[in-house]
Specification:
heterodimer; A: alpha+beta; Immunoglobulin-like; C8orf32 fold; Jelly Rolls; 9-stranded mixed sheet; 8-stranded mixed sheet; 16% helix; 38% strand; globular; B: alpha+beta; 3 domains; 40% strand
Chain lengths: 664, 632
């Protein structure tokens, strides 16, 4: 069974030659054939076509700043349809704290002949926010058949992580190339292993600093063998996204390099990331990570204010809940994610706002002070890449939550909303795996949450006209409860109250008469009980017959049954169970004449089941029991046909009516 | 009477906010998500081209449903400067919970939707209100010059779902510069002379909250406001006046002057393009197509470029421009062949926030088009795909300003006529023995209804992308069918679409019965329920929708339910619905027409207005039940 996307990692070592002839493209001249091209080969519908795209990685050295890396980008795109013209508006964004862009040059090659440059005064440097800047330019005389060509140089001070490179795009690509000239002192790994059309690695001697005096006679510039790499792919089709996908970019062929070790001549090898244990030690020693929540000087004010609500609690669970509640009630989430704190817990508390890391490190400080063993848990958010466990790569993480245990059971805490109970991280954090940054015992764990449950009971009293008084009572748990409570609080109109949009989608003529949360004393936060009353034309009377729609709140939507084939796995954030029970009270004299047969559907591995049963309990009283259980969150694309068939049958059941007949 | 504790301080700094929220009377709590405890807007005109605008506001958020009022923002650009930006928040008892420090304040470049290069910035901070009530006191001062000074500080002291305790607007203007103003639901200002200045003061107190209600008129029609401008101003050396539309239009004409000279080569091409044309209309059409093929819309708004168009020569060289530049370019080409045209200032939106009036000249525009008086024709010059003379729904039926050689003239774009905006759509559903349905759709969308589909063709070059989008948005039942045709008419505002597929999920079989929703694309929008309505109904849709559905089935089936024997007709001021059904040799034919027209209704008519749509939705959800014939 597929657990999560597998990332192949390979080392840049060893000489490989699987070379084919690549295009000889220099900046400026284009061929007459390319100028005359009017559609992408194999895809006449494509709006644009990447003729050539290249990223060249290189390194520089100066005695003051040491090594830095340069990335030369060169791109040539053919515009085929007017819908592609916005692609002529180029924005090259960077953060000047870490990088700079220069040598921006651009040409447009006109289909009828001739080439025009983008004048340098039309290439504008814009300051965005903070240290972010962007070069912006647009091409003149854009038309169908024109070829856009531009190049620029990006310098990065840090050689740790070169820019990732994706060979495939949303439009077809004729040639995509990544090449690199890497000094032998630097050992990189690639976090992906695309099936390359050209895979060429050789040694090429080249001058490069620093100057090491490895012998008494060798003091000048020296030539050393570099890893000379050429990776390329050709004739790639356009890429299309699909619903219920996660970490889609992981499935695109790409190069993602990461520096593993440095070894200068005559010096011992310096590991950049040895293992997770060393990494956690470094993290814990960082001011904006471990020291913020372990040194009381950083959280004394917060603790002083929070202690009265925490220390009086009896059990460890109550202490945890109290600390979690205190953070949620006093510090609001500013909408940003992070894995390192931006300020001390005291500063965050005083400003009453912070990033996800700020909130959760503040929570860690309270738990730590209260004597509860808790640790940071780092995750990469959904759709920002699958976790990579082989190497201790910190940049993969963009969110920090809290890991603790109660009675031997793990408990995940993710502060940020007073309505989300302990144990339920943000939905976006549920990216299957996370790393517990516990000093001395770092480890990867599965981010498992219990199935969220919802039981909805309906009393439907149907009049002869088909109009029904409907009373809906729904007991929601975990994510269903959180979503329900949030919808109730944040609604801007009654039409946005929980369950109302679903009801109106099935029956736009329904009229909601009331809705309310049913407040139950001492009910845990992960439960939400809610009632709704409405009148709805559930039936259609004709002569002696009454056709009745019993499912007023569908449990699944149709999106999963839409496409013929899946390119990517289907990835749900959490497992769930939903049960729908309707008690239908018919007008006097009506008896059930026809109903769908009872049904039980079960996926081959048992991970998904659906049941449906209609029963005439008594004269004029029919019950419909319908449930769907989804136990697995990840399905391989090869499993899609079977899953789609289940979804199709379930959605069909949801719309099947019952037929009643008036008995004389 | 409950004593209101009104904040009357002048400085945010160091102030301990009084717990005024505790003392609010019920009348100011009702329907309110927030309360403006005080709002003082001071507008000090310091010269023909400079002014200082200072706002001091204390607002209490009563709950989390406020409209992002915890975000305090001020806008600026190269001609305006924020000199004060202080934000303080207190809790129910006046205890300070937040004071914006440098690290809490963000400066961010803003790029308007559709704009590529923009030189405007926003300074903002988000107040972390974790408990309510949460009182936010802000003080913002901006110094504005030139064009930034033309963004006059109109006074909208209270919004929907918000009540107001007290607010003042003070305008201090040098005596020699006339202050022009108009207001709604506000008393006349007190005016005094103070030194060399004339001072105008408006004051409002104790305004209950007006609830947000769907389909209600713009707030400028139901809430108090004051709108101001100047009778004399100077910008970048250009002198102007808002004294009336003519003078304001003159000013715009002045800053556009001299930018319509065509390069010689383009001039020759223009003449070649219209050669042989037999009428002005044909010349306009040819040149409009010429411009559409040649140029594209790119918005670059830098400095005076926000008001003054790039020259025709610049557009010709680059083949792009914003609405002003492209209108100027098109106007220049028309001028070259002897056809006069006027640039037109307009507000492109579903409904203009402020409807301009003949008696008060003001800048309430965000777009420019071109008007050809000899043909009574408007040209939308930013579109690469609109038919000649087509104005989109977002620019029809509203006040505009023609920039004529004689000055500004207020006019109105044409109103929408139902017969020109809608669709003719037919669907044939053939029920097969295996319970599949052969589904064929033919549709022509026209007028405003085709804009979406025309835009879709322009945005998605790939038919597969169009199919996906149409399916996702319920215009097509799946994506796996055949014979997908999509035709965008060049000359007329029409888009045609046809599609054929076989569906395995439209017909439900149960025992001897088959169930089929007759209309695959029902009109089932229903306004939300409102038991208590306080605002008038402002319905803006104009459509004429004609649908026919054929259902063909085998002889061994008969219709048990769903037949309509008499035409079904609903009528209301907002529209007319008519559906009828006829037997055919293969099965049945359902024909429905739905006419919708704009209407303004009093609040008490909301119920009947809604009921019309309930009746329509019910009629549209007609289900056919077929069963096997009992006798041969």
């Amino acid at each position: 069974m597929l657990r999560f996307p597998c990332l192949l990692v390979f080392l840049l070592s060893g000489i490989q030659l699987i070379a084919q002839t690549g295009p000889d493209v220099t900046f400026g001249p284009v061929s007459d054939e390319d100028r005359a091209l009017r559609e992408a080969p194999g895809d006449p519908t494509a709006e644009a076509y990447v003729l050539f795209d290249r990223l060249s990685l290189d390194f520089e050295f100066n005695d003051t700043d040491g090594p830095s890396l340069t990335e030369r980008h060169h791109r040539r795109v053919k515009l085929l349809k007017p819908s592609s013209f916005d692609r002529a508006n180029i924005t090259l964004e960077y953060n000047r704290e870490y990088a700079e862009i220069s040598e921006v040059e651009a040409f447009i090659h006109l289909p009828t002949g001739g080439t025009l440059p983008v004048p340098s005064d039309q290439i504008r440097l814009e300051k965005l926010n903070g240290t972010r800047e962007a070069f912006k330019f647009t091409f003149p005389q854009v038309s169908e058949g024109a070829i856009l060509e531009y190049r620029y140089l990006e310098r990065r001070k840090n050689i740790l992580i070169p820019s990732p490179y994706y060979f495939q795009e949303d439009i077809p690509v004729r040639w995509a190339q990544y090449d690199a000239m890497i000094p032998p002192y630097y050992r990189y790994v690639s976090l992906s292993a695309p099936r390359l059309d050209v895979n060429e690695t050789k040694l090429t001697a080249r001058a490069w600093g620093p100057r090491f005096n490895v012998s008494p006679y060798n003091g000048g510039e020296q030539k050393i063998d570099h890893w000379d790499i050429l990776w390329a792919m050709r004739d790639l089709p356009s890429f299309r996204d699909q619903p219920y996908s996660n970490n889609v970019s992981d499935y695109l062929p790409s190069v993602r390099l990461q520096l593993q070790a440095v070894q200068y001549p005559g010096r011992p090898e310096q590991s950049i990331f040895g293992d997770w244990k060393e990494t956690v030690k470094e993290l814990q020693d960082r001011l904006d990570f471990g020291r913020y929540y372990r040194n009381k000087v950083n959280y004394s004010t917060l603790w002083k204010d929070a202690a009265p609500s925490i220390t009086g609690q009896g059990s460890e669970r109550e202490i945890i809940e109290a600390a979690y509640a205190f953070i949620n009630q006093h510090i609001s989430w500013n909408g940003d994610y992070g894995m390192l704190a931006s300020r001390t817990p005291d500063q965050v508390y005083q400003s009453r706002t912070g990033t996800s890391a700020d909130l959760n490190i503040a929570l860690l400080s309270l738990l730590n002070e209260a004597g509860v063993e808790a640790h940071p848990l780092l995750v990469s958010l959904r759709n920002t890449g699958a976790p990579i466990e082989q190497y201790p790569l910190l940049h993969q993480f963009n969110h920090l939550i809290v890991y603790t245990e109660v009675d031997g059971q793990s408990l995940l805490l993710d502060a940020g909303s007073a309505d989300r109970p302990a144990g339920l991280p943000r939905e976006r954090a549920l990216n299957h795996r996370g790393w517990v940054a516990e000093k001395g015992n770092p480890r990867w764990i599965s981010l498992e949450v219990p199935p969220s449950r919802q039981i909805t009971m309906l009393d439907v009293n149907v009049a002869e006209s088909g109009l029904a008084e409907v009373v809906i009572k729904s007991r929601m748990q975990d994510y269903f409860a959180f979503n329900g409570r949030s919808a109730l609080k944040q609604r801007e109109s009654d039409a946005e109250a929980p369950l109302v949009p679903d009801l109106l989608k099935v029956m736009p003529e329904a009229r909601v008469t009331s809705f309310a949360e049913e407040v139950v004393d001492d009910a845990p936060l992960n439960q939400f009980t809610y009632t709704l009353q409405a009148t709805a034309p559930v039936g259609q009377p004709v002569d002696q017959l009454l056709y009745l729609q019993p499912i007023l709140l569908p449990l699944v939507d149709g999106e999963l049954a839409d496409v013929e084939a899946r390119n990517f796995p289907i990835d749900f954030p959490y497992p769930w169970q939903q049960r729908y029970i309707a008690n239908l009270r018919l007008p006097a004299g009506y008896a059930l004449e026809e109903a769908p047969d009872a049904l039980r559907l079960r996926a081959a591995d048992g991970s998904m089941t659906a049941t449906y049963r209609v029963e005439e309990v008594a004269p004029g009283h029919v019950s419909v029991v319908y449930s769907v259980i989804l136990d697995r969150t990840l399905y391989a694309s090869s499993e899609y046909p079977a899953l789609r068939e289940m979804f199709r049958r379930i959605t069909e059941l949801q719309t099947s009516p019952l037929v009643f007949k008036k008995v004389p | 009477m409950v004593l209101l504790i009104v904040w009357a301080g002048t400085q945010v700094r160091g102030q301990a906010e009084m717990p005024a929220a505790l003392a609010l009377p019920d009348s100011l709590r009702e329907n309110a998500n927030s309360v403006v405890l005080s709002y003082d807007l001071d507008y000090h005109v310091t010269s023909l081209r400079t002014a200082t605008i200072r706002e001091r506001r204390t607002i209490t958020l009563l709950n989390g449903k406020h409209d992002r009022e915890n975000v305090v923002a001020a806008y600026y650009d190269g001609e305006s400067k924020i000199t004060t930006f202080d934000v303080l928040a207190t809790d129910l008892f006046g205890g300070e919970i937040f004071r914006a420090r440098k690290s809490d304040i963000t400066d961010e470049r803003i790029t308007a939707e559709g704009s590529f290069v923009d030189d405007r910035w926003v300074r903002y901070t988000k107040v972390p209100c974790t408990k309510y009530p949460c009182t936010i006191t802000t003080e913002v001062e901006r110094k504005v010059t030139d064009f930034a000074a033309m963004a006059f500080p109109h006074w909208n002291p209270v919004h929907r779902d918000q009540s107001l305790v007290t607010a003042t607007f003070t305008a201090r203007v040098p005596a020699e510069i006339p202050l022009l103003y108009t207001g709604y639901l506000v008393p006349e200002p007190q005016t005094t002379g103070e030194g060399q200045d004339r001072v105008y003061r408006w004051k409002l107190q104790n305004i209950p909250a007006q609830p947000s209600e769907a389909l209600s008129p713009q707030p400028t029609e139901t809430l108090p406001f004051v709108r101001v401008s100047l009778g004399d101003f100077e910008i970048d050396g250009y002198r102007g006046s808002f004294g009336d539309w003519e003078r304001f239009g003159s000013f715009i004409g002045t800053i556009m002057a001299g930018r319509d000279e065509l390069p010689a080569r383009l001039s020759a091409e223009v003449h070649a393009e219209v050669e042989g044309a037999t009428s002005d209309r044909e010349k306009i059409d040819r040149l409009y197509r010429f411009m559409q093929d040649r140029c594209r819309y790119v918005s670059v708004q830098l400095g005076i470029g926000g008001w003054q168009p790039f020259s025709a020569a610049y557009v010709e060289e680059n083949r792009y421009g914003d609405c002003k530049a492209l209108s100027n370019y098109m106007g220049a080409m028309l001028k070259e062949v002897g056809i006069a045209s006027y640039p037109v200032l307009i507000h492109s939106s579903e409904v203009p926030y402020y409807a301009i009036r003949e008696d008060f000249a003001t800048s309430a525009f965000n777009h420019m088009v071109l008007y050809v008086p000899s043909e009574d024709m408007y040209l939308e010059c930013t579109s690469k795909h609109a038919p000649t003379g087509y104005l989109s729904e977002s620019t029809l039926d509203r006040g505009v300003l023609w920039i004529t050689p004689e000055g500004g003239v207020m006019a109105r774009t044409p109103a929408l006529v139902p017969a020109e905006h809608g669709h003719l759509r037919s669907v044939t559903q053939v029920l097969k023995e295996d319970n599949n349905v052969d589904f064929v759709l033919n549709a022509t969308y026209f007028g405003a209804e085709q804009e979406l589909f025309r835009g879709l063709a322009a945005y998605f070059g790939s038919p597969q992308d169009r199919l996906d989008w149409l399916h996702k948005n319920s215009f097509l039942p799946d994506v796996s069918g055949s014979d997908f045709q999509y035709t965008v008419a060049g000359e007329a505002p029409e888009v045609s679409m046809s599609y054929t597929t076989r569906l395995n999920n439209r017909l439900r079989k149960m025992g001897s019965r088959r169930f089929l929703m007759l209309n695959p694309q029902p009109y089932n929008w229903i306004p939300e329920v409102q038991e208590e309505r306080s605002l008038p109904v402002d319905f803006r849709t104009t459509r004429f929708l004609v649908d026919t559905v054929r259902v063909n089935y085998e002889e061994n089936l008969e219709i048990e339910s769903g037949l309509i024997r008499e035409p079904l007709v609903f009528e209301h001021q907002v529209g007319k619905y008519r559906a009828e059904m006829r037997r055919t040799e293969e099965g049945l034919l359902w024909i429905r027409t739905l006419l919708l027209r704009p209407v303004r209704l009093p609040a008490e008519d909301y119920g009947s207005f809604r009921q019309f749509f309930v009746d329509v939705a019910k009629a549209e959800s007609l289900q056919l039940v077929l069963r096997e014939r009992r006798t041969k």
